[in-house]
Write a structure and sequence with these properties.
This protein is of the alpha/beta class. It has a domain of 137 residues: P-loop containing nucleotide triphosphate hydrolases (Rossmann fold), CATH 3.40.50.300. It contains 9 helices and 7 strands; from the N terminus they run E-H-E-H-H-H-E-H-E-H-E-E-H-H-E-H. It has a 5-stranded parallel sheet with strand order 2-3-1-4-7, sandwiched between helices. It has a two-stranded antiparallel ribbon with strand order 5-6. Strand 5 and strand 6 form a beta hairpin. Helix 2 crosses helix 3. The longest helix has 15 residues. Bound molecules: BIS(adenosine)-5'-pentaphosphate (AP5) and magnesium ion (MG).
Length: 213
């Protein structure tokens, strides 16, 4: 099963993608997590990506597309995957579409986690992330067992550099301009499903599994 998560920054794509990956035994691939791991490790890709991410801008397609196509060609993707944060532009979606159709394949579901902008800024300021394993928490909604420490790997949790309110506003604007058109793109392909992302995360997940099962 090949699944794409769509939705504004902070809509809960990562939260839901992890739950989907676990339930269906497929890898969760987040381009944002891959960039953040590169930033943490000080790679050239990380240094370049950071200049865009810190401003709330998209990393250029030249840097993003090859990275993603290499990742989905790996062995663990044989039974499918859940993509979180890719595609984010129409050109990215077209490249993925072409690569898949070359293999006689296609995306099965594009799940749009719908959350209005008003809810987003509040969610982001409470988010805490683990830059080692990619786990995400929320100070109020999903707190870690031990304050400031990742439940999974014991590393410290941080406020992401791009979660400051000014940057979140830019990310929302970029989302509406460049990513929202993907909703029409996947509607036209007959694979778009929208779920109400303002519900409790378990209820959002129940709505998603009702689609996938
Ligand atoms: P990326 O890491 O993909 O960030 P994003 O799309 O902005 O989305 P987020 O990760 O911020 O939010 P999310 O939807 O995953 O929400 P989460 O589950 O964490 O990308 C970051 C940057 O990398 C981009 O700005 C860009 O520069 C670059 N980039 C990445 N991919 C790219 C690409 N393909 N092309 C170009 N550039 C790219 O939830 C948010 C918070 O809410 C959490 O605290 C969570 O605990 C909480 N929460 C989740 N669900 C609920 C709920 N139902 N109720 C209450 N709280 C909830
Ligand atoms: Mg995320």
């Amino acid at each position: 099963m090949k699944i794409i998560m769509l939705g504004a920054p902070g809509a809960g794509k990562g939260t839901q993608a992890k739950m989907i990956a676990e339930k269906y035994g497929i890898p969760h691939i987040s381009t944002g997590d891959i960039f953040r791991a590169n930033i943490k490790n000080g790679t050239e890709l990380g240094k370049e990506a950071k200049t865009y991410m810190d401003k709330g801008l998209l990393v250029p397609d030249e840097l993003t597309v090859k990275l993603l196509l290499d990742r989905v060609a790996q062995k663990d993707c044989g039974n499918g995957y859940v993509l979180d944060g890719f595609p984010r532009t129409i050109p990215q979606a077209e490249v993925l579409d072409k690569a898949l159709s070359g293999l006689g394949d296609r995306i099965d579901y594009a799940i749009n986690v719908d959350v209005p902008d008003e809810n987003i800024i509040n969610r982001m300021s409470g988010r805490r992330a683990c830059l080692s394993c990619g786990a995400t928490y929320h100070l109020v909604h999903i707190p870690p067992k031990k304050e400031g420490i990742c439940d999974n790997c014991g590393q410290p949790l941080v406020l992401r550099d791009d979660d400051k309110p000014e940057t979140v506003k830019n990310r929302l604007q970029v989302y509406h301009e460049q990513t929202q058109p993907l909703i029409d793109f996947y509607t036209a392909k007959g694979v778009l499903k929208t779920v109400d992302g303002t519900q409790d995360m378990q209820d959002v997940f129940a709505a998603i599994t009702a689609i996938l099962d």
